Every structure is written in C-alpha cells, then in structure tokens.
Amino acid sequence: MAKQPTQEQLTDYIERWGMVLEALGGTRMMGKILGWLIICDPPEQTAADIAIAVNASAGTVSTTTRALVQAAMIEKVGLPGKRSAYYRVKPGMWAQLMKARMARMHIMGQLADEGLELFPEADSGSSDRLREIGSYIRFVEREFPALLDQWVKQWEKERKR
C-alpha cells in the first residue's frame, strides 16, 4: 500500500504551487488551486471541495477558478447525475499554455521590429536591445514548435504505458 502524505505535507505542497505561480505572474491562490487539482482524487472537484482543500473562502475560489478557466488551465465540467459544477485540470493544458505564450511572444517580436523602424537613429544601446529581442523571439519561434511537437509525441507514448 502506498504511503499517504500527511496533512502538513499536502498543505506545504499546495502552498509551493502557489508560490511558483505567484513568481510566474499569477496569484498565489491560482497556484494553490491548480496544485490541488493536479493531485486530487477524484480529479473533478466542486468549488466547495476546493475551498476546503486550499483553505479559502467560497468567493476567493469562485474568482480564482474563473481566472484559471479563462487562462485555459482548468475547465468547468458537469458530471452525469450531479447538479454541482466541477473543476479539473484541462487535458492538454501544458502544450496549449505554451502555444498561447508563443503567440504573445510573437507580438513582442513585432514590437521590437516596429521599434527599429520607428527609431532608426536611436543610439546603439536601444538598437541593440531591440535587435536582441527580435533575434531571441525569431529563434524561439523557429525552434520551439518542433520541441513542443516532440514532447507531445513523447507524452502520448508515456501515457499509453
């Protein structure tokens, strides 16, 4: 029989997800809810289940799950025979999240190119910074899709084991 984590270990683990998402620009509660939904069993949880697990108010859970749904990290689902709404980690979320980030990076690359056109006489420091941004983004746009596709194929193989 597998060893179950203590409540303290579980709380600490969920809190660390909160800290990570906060460091990445989200909120700590987004991370805590995501962390809980990654590890919970069953994978579908009501807002009340989530509130208990992450020690949050119903209002905080409502606001945060809405933000996570909008960010396409979790999804709201109904279960047959159940009246409540349930939340779960959205299947394929990690690849979709990276594709969305790539789309935002593309916009930054366009802004860097536009900056070079708008300020052709700019000092070499700003020109270098704009060229560096553009170069980086073009590199990532060229290389990352193949890497992501490779991971998706690898994940499909791993899931079938």
Description:
The chain has 161 residues and is mainly alpha-helical. The chain has two domains: 7-89, Orthogonal Bundle (Arc Repressor Mutant, subunit A); 93-160, Orthogonal Bundle (Helix Hairpins), CATH 1.10.287. 70% of the residues lie in helices and 6% in strands. The chain is built from six helices and two strands. It has helices spanning 7-23, 28-39, 47-54, 58-70, 93-118, 124-160, and strands at 74-78, 85-89. Strands 1-2 form a two-stranded antiparallel ribbon. Strand 1 and strand 2 form a beta hairpin. Helix 2 packs across helix 4 and helix 3 crosses helix 4. It is elongated, with a radius of gyration of 21 Å. The mean pLDDT is 93.
Structure characteristics:
161 residues, mainly alpha, Arc Repressor Mutant, subunit A, Helix Hairpins, 2 domains, two-stranded antiparallel ribbon, 6 helices, elongated
Helix/strand layout:
Layout: H1 7-23, H2 28-39, H3 47-54, H4 58-70, E1 74-78, E2 85-89, H5 93-118, H6 124-160
Antiparallel strand pairs: 1-2
Helix pairs in contact: 1-2, 2-4, 3-4, 5-6
Evaluate the radius of gyration. 21 Å
Output the CATH homologous superfamily of the largest domain: Winged helix-like DNA-binding domain superfamily/Winged helix DNA-binding domain
CATH class of the largest domain: Mainly Alpha
Second CATH tier, the architecture of the largest domain: Orthogonal Bundle
Helix content: over 70%
Largest sheet, if any?
A: 2 strands, antiparallel
The count of domains is: 2
Strand order of the largest sheet: 1-2
Global shape: elongated
Number of helices: 6
Amino-to-carboxy terminus distance = 21 Å
- The helix/strand series, from N terminus to C terminus, equals HHHHEEHH
CATH T-level fold name of the largest domain: Arc Repressor Mutant, subunit A
Annotation, overall tally of beta strands: 2
Spans of at least 5 consecutive residues with low confidence:
none
Assign the structural class, choosing from mainly alpha, mainly beta, alpha/beta, alpha+beta, or little secondary structure: mainly alpha
- Give the integer mean of the pLDDT values: 93
**Percentage of β-strand residues:** 5-15%
